Each structure stands twice: as C-alpha cells, then as structure tokens.
Amino acid sequence: MFKIFRYSLSDLLRSSWSYFYFSFYLLLGFGLLFFNPDVSKSVITLMNIIVVFSSLIAVVFGIMYYYNSREFIELLLAQPIKRSDIFIGQYLAVSVSLSLSLLLGVGIPFVIYGVADADLVKNFLVLMTAGIFLNFIFVAVAYNIALYHENRIKGFSYAILFWLFMTLIYDGLFLISLMMFKEYPLEKASLAATLFNPIDLSRILILLRLDISALMGYTGAVFKNFFGTTLGLTIALFSLLIWVILPVLNIYRKGNKKDF
Amino acid sequence: MIEFKNITKKFGKLQVLEQVDLSINKPGIYAILGPNGSGKTTLIKCLLGMTIPTSGQIFVDGQDTKGKWEFRNQISYLPQIANFPKNMTVTELLRLIKTLRKQASAEQPLIDVFGLKPYLNKNMGTLSGGTKQKVNLVLALMTDNPIVILDEPTSGLDPLALLELKKLIKIEKEKGKTILITSHIMSLVEELSDEIVFLLEGKIHFRGTVDALKTKTQTVDFDEAIAQILKPSHV
C-alpha cells in the first residue's frame, strides 16, 4: 500500500492542480487575516469557505483522480499486489495531498500573522482538523461513487449531487421539517440529524471551539446546551471519524469484489 | 499448472463464461480463440483475479487463487488495450512496475529490439498506438515468469515489430514457459501454437492441436478450419 501511496502522492504533488489549490488558500488566508482587523470574524469567514469549498474540491478531485487512473488501476491489478492496497493507497494519497494544500495554504498566513497568540493557534488547529476531516470524508465518498459507477458522467453527477445535498439541500429539508413540526420538541431529532451530515458536524466543531455557537443558528445552540463544550466536541469528532471509517471500509470491500 | 474448475461468469444478466473446465499441465503455447465476445479476455482476467468469477475455482500451481495475490508473481500479463497513465514517462512506468514486482528484470534488450530508446523520456500520452503497444510488451516480457499471458499482442504493431515479437515468443517457449495467447491473426496462431482452445458463447468448443482441428473439420487451411468450426453442423 505504501508504494502505491508514495507513487500517487508524488504524482499528485507534481500536478498543477495542487499548486493552484494551495495558492487559492494562501491568497485567501492572507487576504482575510491581514485586511480584516477582527480575527474571530476572519476565522468564521475562513471556516465557511473551507467547509463548503474544500468538501467540493475533495469530492470532485477524488472522482476525477479515480476515473483518470482507471487504466493505471488495471495495470496495477495484474501486478503481484493486494487489490485493496491499490484503492486505499490512492485514496490516502488524494486525501493527503489535498490536506497538505489546505494546511500549508492557510497555515503560512496564520504563522506569519501570529504564532504567539495561543488562542489563534487553537482556532487554527480546530479549523484544520475540520478541513482535513472533510477532505478524507469527501474523497472517500467520491471513491465509493466511482467504484459503483463506470459511467463517468453519472459518477460526476452523483458526486456533485452528494456535495450539494450535504451543503444546501440537507439544511433546507432540516429547516422545513423544523417549521412543520414546530409544536413538537425537536432538540433530539435535530441533534441526530446533525450527526448524519459531515458538513454540519465540522461547522459545529469549529463553532463550539470559537464559543459562538449560540450566534450561529439553532443546531449549534442545541448542541452546546445538550452536550456542553467538551462532550459536544468529542461527539462531533467521533461522528466525523465514523464518517471516514465507514466509506473507507466500503472502498476496501467493494475494491476486493469489483470486476475490471 | 493452471486449472479452471467450473468457471461461470455473469455480468448482470449477460452470461460470459459458462462452466468452463480447462487444465493446462505442460508448458507450451496455448492459443485461446473465439469470435468477439466469446469470453476470451474474461477468462484471462479471471485467471489474473481482475474479474471475479460468479462461481468456480481457479488453481495456479495447485493453489486456489481466490482472494490471493501472491500467485501473480508467477504471471506476466500483456493487457489488450494499452492504456497507461498519460502524464507518466516510459522510464517512470518501467521503474514503477519494477519496484512493484521486486523481480530481476531485463528491459534493456527489449527496448533495443523495439527501438524504444527515443521515447523513454516521453509522456505515455504522446505516444502512438503502436509505440504504446511496444511499451506494453516490454512491461510484460521484462520479468522472467513461468506463465505468460498475451492478450492480442499484435495489435497496432508494424510488420518488423511483429517479426520480433514472434521471435520473442518462441524464445520464451524454449525457456519452458506456459504461454497463453489470444489473437485474431490466424497465421500467427497457426505458426506458434501447440494447442488451441476455442471458446464459443462462453464454453470450450474445441481443444486440441492445429492439425486435430483441421482433421476434425476436414480442411487443409487453418482459416477455413476456423470458419468451419463456427458453422452450425459443428456447433
């Protein structure tokens, strides 16, 4: 697995996409931190962009990488290596390369702006944790979609749809259901619903840390009241971990069964 | 050496292989023939574990191959469609396969034979179909393995390269290897193969030597014999 991982990673790190993605975050980080006097506001803006944008890039890039390396995968399958090593190795390489772009792109401005500020460092770490989780989750989902769909157009559409669902439609449906059932106590239901959306989970993770959850809507407030900060953070982190583990297990399972 | 036991493969409703039993016990060149869609490539991919049979077992050297990967250390494989990662150079590709296979490899003589030297630092995406096939051949033949599988080895090759390929296959045979070839070039099959396995609609329809096929179909010409065997009276 390590060989495939290393090879794919070096291939990815040479691609112009990685640099483009890295420079995007670099510019964004500098722009927000240096031209906005209020750091916590910049962090929130940065959070919103990272949560939405990095998940989109992860799902698109993941599916693109799989389809582009389709022939390569066939070549590898005839070699004396374990089947699952190919898929898991590639998956890790894509996720790690995207995470590196994010980490360095946002990290460099943060370091220059103020490493001494302990609070800022903590905020940065939480932001990166959420972003990296989202990369690993959305690339895993993309790989799952690609493994089930030979048709590239279909695969792409499902990938984009999944992202759209998690970023927009889910919240919409969530709000509509809250309105419809407003006579009932909905705290627990809304809590449960949040756990099924990695985007919401990473938002909560960041908001709990920034201690502004009450400002950012219903779910955040409920989450905080129900679990408190520490338990809330643990539960959010744990759920994100599940969101990584389950799709990866399925890549492993499907990768061993699929016909080429 | 290689044994297919009751191999059935379905892709959804489409049945590609139907209870194929085939054992290959002695070294030599075996041609797997059959019309388009008769299951040749699927049979080969099942052997390699790239396609998972719906039912049945495959043994290589007496070992069940299901879920295993180590047995691929003994197999060299030339895929039918030579599609490679486009942004990789020929040298990089060779290096990668060498690291993956962890075997001694002799690519240099093959590179010379096929005249690939000027292309070594070119990206795979910029190569012509025939040149890609030559790279494909180098990748497949550079390691020394007891089983060699060549799926349409001639596709896209110029006459000179074809001649070289025939020589190479003969050399491999002399080393005592088991070589499986699929091809639509009948003259190549007639010239090289020790035995023919003829697949039709996912079943083995004929197995034997070229001469046996000619006798069975009462023809002197190999092309004619193949045409005959496809006729209803023989089916």
Secondary-structure topology with pairs:
The complex is a heterodimer of chains A (260) and B (235).
Chain A: H1 2-13, H2 16-35, H3 39-68, H4 70-77, H5 83-114, H6 118-148, H7 152-180, H8 187-195, H9 198-210, H10 218-257
Helix pairs in contact in A: 1-5, 2-3, 2-5, 3-5, 3-6, 3-7, 3-9, 5-6, 5-10, 6-7, 6-9, 6-10, 8-10, 9-10
Chain B: E1 2-11, E2 14-24, E3 28-33, H1 40-48, E4 55-60, E5 63-64, E6 75-78, H2 90-101, H3 108-113, H4 129-141, E7 147-151, H5 159-174, E8 178-182, H6 186-192, E9 195-200, E10 203-208, H7 210-217, H8 222-229
Parallel strand pairs in B: 3-8, 3-9, 6-7, 7-8
Antiparallel strand pairs in B: 1-2, 1-4, 4-5, 9-10
Helix pairs in contact in B: 7-8
Q: C-alpha Rg of chain B, in Å?
A: 18 Å
Number of helices of chain A: 10
What is the total domain count of chain B? 1
- Taken from the alpha-carbon principal axes, the silhouette of chain A is globular
Explained architecture:
The complex is a heterodimer of chains A (260) and B (235). Chain A is mostly helical and 260 residues long. Chain A has one domain (2-257). Helices cover 86% and strands 0% of the residues of chain A. Chain A is built from ten helices and no strands. In chain A, helix 1 crosses helix 5, helix 5 (83-114) packs antiparallel against helix 6 and helix 6 (118-148) packs across helix 10. Helices cover 34% and strands 26% of the residues of chain B. Chain B has one domain (2-80, 143-229): 3-Layer(aba) Sandwich (Rossmann fold), CATH 3.40.50.300. The two termini of chain B are 29 Å apart. A six-stranded mixed sheet of chain B has the order 6-7-8-3-9-10, with helices on both faces. Chain B has 235 residues and is an alpha/beta fold. In chain B, helix 7 crosses helix 8. The A-B interface holds A 3, 7, 11, 15, 68-69, 71-72, 74-83, 256-260 and B 11, 45, 48-52, 67, 69-73, 75, 77, 79, 81, 83-85, 87-88, 96-97, 99-102, 139.
